[in-house]
Amino acid sequence: MAINTILVSQPKPEGKKSPYFDLAEKYGLKIDFRSFIHVEGIDAQEFRSQKIDLADHTAIILTSKTAVDHYFRIAEEMRFEVPDSMKYFCISEAVAYYLQKYVAYRKRKIFFGKQTIVDLVDVLKKHKKENFLLPCTDRLRDRIPTTLEANDLRFSKAVLYRTVASDLSDLEDVYYDMLVFYSPGGIESLLKNFPKFKQNKTVIAAFGPTTANAIVKNKLRLDLHAPQPNAPSMTGAIENFVKEQSKGKK
Fold first, then answer.
1. Which listed site, 9, 75, 182, 194, has its alpha carbon 20 to 30 Å from 164?
2. pTM of the entire predicted model
3. What is the tens place of the pLDDT at every residue in 9-61?
4. CB atoms closer than 10 angstroms to residue 115
5. Does the domain formed by 5-36+175-249 have CATH 3.40.50.10090?
6. Distance of alpha carbon 144 from alpha carbon 128, whole angstroms
7. Does residue 159 come out as left (phi exceeding 0), alpha (psi in the -120 to 50 range) or beta?
8. Helix, strand or coil for residue 124?
9. 13: CB partners within 8 A, 6+ apart
10. Domain chopping of the chain, boundaries
């Protein structure tokens, strides 16, 4: 079948430049964006039930901008004044710079990696005496705590926010030729909102192995999977798929 309409289960890219915008223009596609999941912070009472004392920690491992926001939010709700001596270990330079929203950047001890927890390990190991706090979601990937444990780092996992399904009821009677997912949470949201969902001819695309596994696990048909050797990006894989469909049409 020809692909004319695509729904991407993520927020619309900011700015005017995006591979998705280029794809839409090049092939005359209608591409819409919608977050299937969103983040909700836990309150101070629920945080207390984890029996974690913010004051016991001398350093923080920050894996996302969301983690930054919720750490400082819960600190304020707990009336905990973050000391100037606190050390910040960020998964990327972008997350490190985001700290400027809350602290005087140049006056703090801030370290960052390239993009993954593995990149950050060498820096963390140089500060083994620290007691680390790991602010995270309720769906934290096992790789992060496993990596910290493997390197004998003392840390507390603090769940400060959770990923929940967004309300998609307004999409009930809207049909798309292709649905694009980037996380298992997106699949869960689809089925929570539409428990009677029938895939039929709808093409389902997934980025990453965990997302692909979630599609198969929920007995849906996985039509397109990225990254691929000839298409490391989701948009590249979609473009290849659209071109193949066009050939078949001819």
1. 75
2. 0.78
3. 999 998 889 999 999 999 999 999 999 999 999 999 999 999 999 999 999 99
4. 13
5. yes
6. 16
7. beta
8. helix
9. 20, 21, 33
10. 5-36+175-249, 40-163
Residue 34: closest CA among 143, 126, 172, 223? 172
Fill in the DSSP letter of residue 105.
Answer: G
**Token pair in block for residue 92:** 């990327």
Tokens of 212: 């692909």
How far, in Å, CA of 240 to CA of 231, rounded? Answer: 8
Beta strands in the chain (DSSP E): 5-8, 30-33, 37-41, 59-62, 87-90, 109-112, 132-137, 155-165, 178-181, 203-207, 224-226
Query: In the structure encoding, which two tokens stand for residue 161, read together?
Result: 């926010």
How much helix, strand and coil, in percent to the nearest 5, is found in the chain? 40, 20, 40
Q: Which of 13, 15, 31, 35 is nearest to 23 (CA)?
A: 31
Largest CA distance in the chain: 67
CA distance 239 to 242: 5
CATH value of 40-163 in 3.90.1170.20, 3.40.50.10090, 3.30.420.40, 3.40.50.300: 3.40.50.10090
Decide whether 5-36+175-249 matches 40-163 in CATH topology: yes
Residue type, 187: I
Closest CA to 132 of 117, 119, 142: 117
Instruction: Identify the CA nearest to 41 among candidates 8, 18, 68, 70.
Output: 70
